[in-house]
Amino acid sequence: MRATVCLPTYDERENLPRMIEALSGVLRDGDRVLVIDDASPDGTGEIADALAAEHPFLDVLHRKGKEGLGRAYIAGFHRALADGAELVLEMDCDFSHDPADVPRLIAAAERGADLVLGSRYVPGGKTRNWGLIRKLISRGGSVYTAIFLQMGVKDPTGGFKCFRRDVLEELDLDGITPRGYAFQIETTYRVKQAGWRVIEIPITFADREVGRSKMSRAVVLEAIWRVPLLRLRG
């Protein structure tokens, strides 16, 4: 099953070349990487174009401006599906997700899972280089989501995922509107509500070493009010 890794970028010029090099070592023949750049002012988009000229497996989708993680992924999903991807992956460009884990997510989907989640909170999963506040926010978000949505998912806010094509085709992608990390919660919730098989596999999540985190107060607040709204809408 041909896989496309969707890699949203905003000011990731220091991480992108290393990430593409790392992915080139783990992807199979026919797999692709799609960089979705939101007009990064640091020149990430231009770097992506130069890398695409060197690596035949790499495509670049340029967007007009920064609209948030969710909108970037939706645009990437549409492009990947149009290009014939059978598996579509999400991952961060800052090495918080280990490229070496990509084959594990793909293998789990090929064994029959409809959505594979790289999870920090199942046995064997862990975080690295996190401060106490970050740990409390992440754990608190998982507990808060579990109380309202009762999905049976240990790591609902995680963003390392592999979808089968059929799943994304059934979802109303353009109806998923969160801009920040609430996007991760809503996509998993909608997949579960539709009756697809979701599994979690353990990963180690490491805090970024280069560049600035995109986490903000607005991102956290969006997740807080959107989670109960999802429950109300069913």
Protein architecture, described:
- This protein is an alpha/beta fold and 234 residues long.
- The chain has a single domain, classed as Spore Coat Polysaccharide Biosynthesis Protein SpsA, Chain A (Alpha-Beta Complex), CATH 3.90.550.10.
- The chain is 41% helix and 18% strand.
Structure summarized in a few sentences:
With 234 residues, the protein is an alpha/beta fold. The protein has eight helices and nine strands.
Q: What number of domains?
A: 1
The top level CATH class name: Alpha Beta
Q: Give the CATH topology.
A: Spore Coat Polysaccharide Biosynthesis Protein SpsA, Chain A
Order of helices and strands: EHEHEHEHEEHEHHEEH
Mean pLDDT across all amino acids:
92
Give the count of helical stretches. Answer: 8
- The name of the CATH superfamily reads Spore Coat Polysaccharide Biosynthesis Protein SpsA, Chain A
Distance between the termini: 32 Å
- Biggest sheet statistics: 7 strands, mixed
The CATH architecture assignment turns out to be Alpha-Beta Complex
Q: Describe the strand arrangement of the main beta sheet, using strand numbers.
A: 3-2-1-4-7-5-8
Principal-axes shape call: globular
Query: How many strands appear in the DSSP assignment?
Result: 9
